[in-house]
Amino acid sequence: MTASPLDLDGNPLRAPGDGGPGFCYLSDADLFRGAGSLEDGPFLIALDSNIILDLEQHGTAILEREEADGINAEHQQELAALGAILDLWMVRDIRFVVVPRTRVDYRKAPSPSRMVERERMFEHIEAALTFQTGDWGREDERFGGARAMPPVAARLIDSVSPLDGRMLTSAWNAGVDVFLTRDARLLAACQDGEPPFPAVLAPTGLVNRLAQLGEDPFFLGQVEHPSCAWAFGMPFGDTGKWVSLYEAMGV
Known about the structure:
By secondary structure, the protein is α/β, with parallel strands linked by helices. It has helices spanning 49-64, 73-91, 112-133, 151-158, 162-174, 184-189, 203-211, 240-248; strands at 23-24, 40-41, 43-47, 94-97, 178-180, 199-201.
């Protein structure tokens, strides 16, 4: 049976959960692109495979603010920015999403042993997401069918490689806000992408955008508006999500 197209307002990835305080989408409608008509909720970030590889290979350096071995200065800056995003993730409801196409995002099939390692990494990230969405045992319901794509977004998809196009289409169908990547060609091709298509950003670019929402990590992205979900307090999230992601990073 074919899955139904995603209803953004009913996106299971945005289901209320225990991941900490979320964001008021009115604070930056250009950043929270998959929110639909919702006013408050989590921040959905789809991870490109190169970001997942950074978490796997440089997890300790990222968390401990150390310089990783064997990488250039630009890559080091992106790792530092990824660390800043993780700091915010620990206290806010930011949800890292492994979209379905991520599992086959390779130009040459990895060895069987590497495939096992990749799958273990994906499962740890998804386990952290489960703590935030509370969809225990229903994880296979997170992703629906294809969403209708506006012509401008379809042209953007056509301008990138077929492999990248499938990844971006998967992110679009999942209704995420941001697709996080270090792929320079993809970033250049998508720099003029318009809402509601996910913003394609490097970690440094995302950190710069988040900085515009405020300085206090507990309150950035919060604006006063009627029926705000956090008007009467800022609950601390379930720290169980930390364990799964730390395991993914080998910490």
